[in-house]
């Protein structure tokens, strides 16, 4: 900020710009007077003169003027350039410049221009390496931030010095710079342990209509402020190896810089997205001091310093990213200047008028200055005395000149005595008046002293009340900080809940839309399935009707065959052997009748499947029993397996499972379950069953029945001969397929009737 020797930095250039611009328009010292509430007042010429005389009478060293010699310690940093000035400067105003210098150390504000008995930063040590206990030592007191009536933040009780030149302002800065806290670390020999703020205040007020005096109206006074901030750099303790106080200082520095970054991020988010989040200015004294700057009451400019070393790459990258983010924040707002309503250019017009008037008086021979007026007054006073006669003596015997001179001198002496008596009387009267005035002044002084004592008591009470209010303010500020943090937490929770609510509502909307799509899909599937099952039911009903018709037809045929067998005519009645012969020679009856010799050999038939041109998987479990029926299922181009496998299914298009079970009448019923083979998305094979064929084997029952009703007139032997073995008389084989369009095929093999022995 100060620059290097031979090349002035930011601070000298700013001071040059200010004083070169307002140099001829500066007001006399103490015309502007700052108050304790971040305001400025204008004093009259008499009060300003008394203030200057009081300052000159004080024994303290004065701030240097521009004509004095500059301190060689910083003389090479100041290079005054007259061409560096602002163009638009109001010539009808007078200006005053005030400077102050503060630092923010461990989140506390200290005044660097405050006068202390000795250096308060470095403790004094004696030979025993113990601190010196000195009653005159007063440790520096931290200052308090306040807010004025215009909602601008300022430091109460801060020393503000009025300066008239660049050299004087820089010397004040250098005096405070010596008190700034610095320390030695592993990365920097003189590392700043605090943030410093050099404040330049520019007060301006318009001149009156004559262009001679300053207007006393406070509304017309404008107070501008320029703050030059030197921020301490962020530190990483793993590199600086800080311990103890250095570690605490580094933590406070990093915390304040992080708060500054957070404030700028919140401002950027509010401006870009139109939100109204609370900016956490109060989390740090640095951001709290410049709250009004970020709120739009001024302009903010940032100069970033980076280190070109390779080991500082991460820090430099973070600083550049922070600088890039700050460019997106806009805080500038135009300020309205008060309008005084006076004629512009009145200063130079009145000055030109006075110069012209003086020139004309000189031309007429009038008084030029105040000395000529004093000489004219003395000459007028001497004209009241009688004129002296000529004192030239030309003759020794001249007796008239000396008596005339003596007479004139006596008259003058008498006149002087008269004047002396009058003056004595006047002095006596004046002394009497002065005594009366002194008595009045003494009485008034006593009265004023009484009033002052009362006022002192009131002031003491007010100070106590002020201290109480300050403590209360601190307590309230602490509570406000807690409430702000609580509000921040609640806002964060509210934001999280709102986000969760939005996500839940979006999820519910997606679920509702999915539900509607699923309902529409299910309705379509239900309609499709309903139509499919209606067709399937119609098909099954038709197949069942056809099956029942076939069964009825088969039963009718059976009944016809049985009727034909039963009603067959009897040719001869065999003789019945006698009982004696039966006893002597018992007959041996075979368990089952022998087949008829005339019955031709039956050739087994193979029933051909309808799916001839396709490749099949014929799945026959090992528990199947061969039926040895006339018609057997035969599938060409089939792969016969005992257990279904994915390899066999991958080679074929159709699948057939042979399943056997025992029917209710004790016969074996064979079912051929058929289906289509297709590939799944996972790369496997699946079977969808489409058809079931049933092969059922039926045979007449083996029980005995009578072929005709018994005749009671016949003998017992005749009655026994009427009984026939139905099994030996009829053998029926029926094979059919459910739902087949073809009629059931059957064969009837009859054996000759045998009589009972």
Question: What can you tell me about this protein's structure?
Answer:
By secondary structure, this protein is α+β, with helices and mostly antiparallel strands. It has four domains: 3-232, Kinesin, CATH 3.40.850; 233-297 and 299-332, Methane Monooxygenase Hydroxylase, Chain G, domain 1; 380-391 and 401-564; 603-697, Sandwich (Immunoglobulin-like). The chain has 15 helices and 24 strands. The strands form nine sheets. Strands 5, 6, 9, 12 and 13 form a five-stranded antiparallel β-sheet that branches. A five-stranded mixed β-sheet has the order 17-15-18-19-20. Strands 1-2 form a two-stranded antiparallel ribbon. Strand 1 (3-4) and strand 2 form a beta hairpin. The longest helix has 166 residues, at 401-566. The relative contact order is 0.05. Mean pLDDT is 76; it is low at 63-67, 118-137, 367-374, 572-612 and 702-757.
Detail the topology: elements first, then pairings.
Layout: E1 3-4, E2 7-8, H1 10-22, E3 32-34, E4 40-42, H2 45-57, E5 93-105, E6 108-111, E7 145-147, E8 153-155, E9 161-163, H3 166-177, E10 182-183, E11 191-192, E12 195-206, E13 222-230, H4 237-240, H5 245-273, H6 285-289, H7 291-297, H8 313-326, H9 346-364, H10 370-382, H11 401-566, H12 579-584, E14 605-608, E15 616-619, E16 631-634, E17 638-641, H13 646-651, E18 654-662, E19 668-679, E20 685-696, E21 705-706, H14 716-722, E22 723-724, H15 726-729, E23 731-735, E24 745-749
Parallel strand pairs: 14-16, 15-17, 15-18
Antiparallel strand pairs: 1-2, 3-4, 5-6, 5-9, 5-12, 7-8, 10-11, 12-13, 18-19, 19-20, 21-22, 23-24
Biased composition (Basic and acidic residues): 569-587, 611-621
Protein name: Kinesin-like protein
Biased composition (Acidic residues): 714-725
């Amino acid at each position: 900020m100060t620059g290097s020797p031979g090349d002035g930095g930011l601070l000298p250039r700013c001071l040059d710009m200010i004083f070169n611009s307002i140099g001829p328009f500066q007001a006399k010292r103490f015309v502007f007077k700052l108050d304790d509430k971040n305001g400025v007042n204008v004093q009259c010429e008499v009060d300003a003169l008394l203030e200057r005389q009081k300052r000159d009478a004080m024994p303290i060293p004065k701030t240097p003027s521009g004509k004095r010699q500059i301190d060689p310690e910083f003389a090479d940093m100041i290079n005054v350039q007259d061409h560096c000035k602002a163009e638009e400067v109001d010539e009808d105003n007078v200006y005053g410049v005030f400077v102050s210098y503060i630092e923010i150390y461990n989140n506390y504000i200290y005044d660097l221009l405050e006068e202390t008995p000795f250096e308060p930063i470095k403790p004094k040590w004696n030979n025993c390496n113990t601190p010196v206990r000195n009653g005159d030592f007063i440790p520096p007191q931290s200052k308090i931030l306040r807010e004025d009536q215009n909602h601008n933040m300022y430091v109460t009780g801060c020393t503000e010095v009025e300066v008239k030149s660049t050299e004087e302002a820089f010397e004040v800065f250098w005096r405070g710079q010596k008190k700034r806290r610095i320390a030695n670390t592993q990365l920097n020999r003189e590392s700043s342990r605090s943030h410093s703020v050099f404040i330049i205040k520019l007060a301006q007020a318009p001149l009156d209509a004559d262009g001679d005096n300053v207007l006393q109206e406070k509304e017309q006074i404008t107070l501008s402020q320029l703050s030059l901030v030197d921020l301490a750099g962020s530190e990483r303790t793993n590199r600086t190896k800080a311990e103890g106080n250095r570690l605490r200082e580094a933590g406070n520095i990093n915390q304040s810089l992080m708060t500054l970054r957070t404030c700028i991020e919140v401002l950027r988010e509010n401006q870009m997205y139109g939100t109204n989040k609370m900016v956490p200015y109060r989390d740090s004294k640095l951001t709290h001091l410049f709250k009004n700057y970020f709120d739009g009451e001024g302009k903010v400019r940032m100069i970033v310093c980076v280190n070109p070393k390779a080991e500082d790459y991460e820090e430099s990258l973070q600083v550049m990213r922070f600088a890039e983010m700050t460019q997106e924040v806009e805080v500038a707002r135009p300020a309205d200047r008060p309008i005084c309503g006076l004629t512009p250019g009145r200063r130079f017009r009145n000055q030109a008028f006075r110069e012209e008037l003086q020139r004309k008086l000189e031309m007429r021979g009038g008084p030029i200055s105040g000395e000529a007026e004093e000489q004219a007054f003395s000459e007028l006073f001497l004209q009241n005395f009688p004129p002296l006669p000529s004192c030239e003596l030309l003759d020794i015997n001249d007796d008239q000149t000396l008596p005339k001179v003596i007479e004139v001198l006596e008259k003058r002496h008498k006149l002087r005595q008269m004047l002396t008596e009058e003056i004595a009387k006047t002095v006596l009267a004046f002394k009497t008046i002065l005594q009366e005035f002194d008595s009045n002044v003494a009485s008034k002084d006593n009265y004023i002293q009484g009033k002052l004592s009362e006022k002192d008591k009131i002031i003491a009470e007010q100070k106590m009340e002020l201290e109480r209010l300050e403590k209360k303010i601190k307590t309230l500020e602490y509570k406000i900080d807690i409430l702000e943090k609580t509000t921040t937490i609640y806002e964060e929770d509210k934001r999280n809940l709102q986000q969760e609510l939005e996500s839940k509502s979006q999820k519910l909307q997606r679920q509702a839309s999915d539900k509607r799509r699923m309902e529409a899909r299910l309705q379509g599937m239900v309609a499709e399935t309903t139509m499919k099952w209606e067709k399937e039911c119609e098909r099954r009903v038709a197949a069942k009707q056809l099956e029942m018709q076939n069964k009825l037809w088969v039963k009718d045929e059976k009944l016809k065959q049985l009727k034909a067998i039963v009603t067959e005519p009897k040719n001869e009645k065999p003789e019945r052997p006698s009982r004696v012969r039966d006893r002597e020679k018992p007959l041996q009856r075979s368990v089952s009748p022998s087949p008829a010799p005339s019955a031709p050999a039956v050739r087994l038939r193979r029933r051909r499947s309808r799916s001839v041109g396709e490749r099949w998987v014929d799945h026959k479990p090992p528990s199947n029993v061969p039926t040895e029926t006339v018609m057997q299922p035969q599938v060409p181009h089939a792969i016969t397996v005992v257990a279904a496998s994915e390899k066999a299914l991958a080679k074929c298009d159709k699948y057939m499972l042979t399943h056997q079970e025992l029917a209710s009448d004790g016969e074996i019923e064979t079912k051929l379950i058929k289906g289509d083979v297709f590939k799944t998305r996972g790369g496997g094979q699946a079977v969808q069953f489409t058809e079931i064929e049933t092969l059922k084997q039926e045979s007449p029952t083996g029980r005995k029945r009578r072929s005709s009703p018994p005749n009671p007139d016949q003998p017992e032997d005749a009655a026994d001969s009427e009984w026939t073995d139905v099994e030996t008389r009829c053998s029926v084989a029926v094979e059919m397929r459910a739902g087949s369009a073809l009629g059931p095929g059957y064969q009837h093999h009859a054996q000759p009737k045998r009589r009972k022995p």
